[in-house]
Amino acid sequence: FRNNINKAPYQIITYLDKIPNFENKGDFIERILYGLDNWEDDRMLAYFQKYIPFDEESKGRDNFWFFQILEKIFEYHSNYVFEKVKPIFINRFNKSESYSIEFSHDQTELLNKMYSIAPENSFLFLLNIYEKVIDDNKITQPYEDIDSPYYNCKKFYDGLSVSTEGHIFIQEFLLKHLLT
Predict the structure, then answer these.
(1) What is the pLDDT of residues 127-147, one digit of tens each?
(2) Do the beta carbons of residue 121 and residue 82 sit within 8 Å?
(3) Residue 135, Cβ neighbours under 10 Å: how many?
């Protein structure tokens, strides 16, 4: 099946999916989907959803294939990918108790791929995430004491930060777009 997945993906995966449970069925289908290059057929998105879920508790590179396949899907279904990863990126900030969060290599590679295909939509996507994190994590003190419209964000640190930190990565991404 693996050698022919790009010739008739929907037919192959549908056939395998309909077979009553066999040993390691999910893993078997998941590994076949890794080799699918053309995700143009939107019927395949249901199989991505079913067999390659995002593992929120992942500590290592368990989500490597999730992001790799989203890069392929983005070429045909950008809105699907934007909707799929938006809560993941927002959650990176909301789950952390500290200022310093970093996106994984797989996440930054996906963002770079998205930007190379759809720069304006990727810019708006990241801007929306940035605004959401700020709005959900405002620190209005001491600014409200002096009647100022300004505020800080408890998830962003303005001191010594490095470009690998999530908020700095997004800021640099947004700035790069504005300067082009």
Answers:
(1) 999 888 888 877 666 655 655
(2) yes
(3) 10
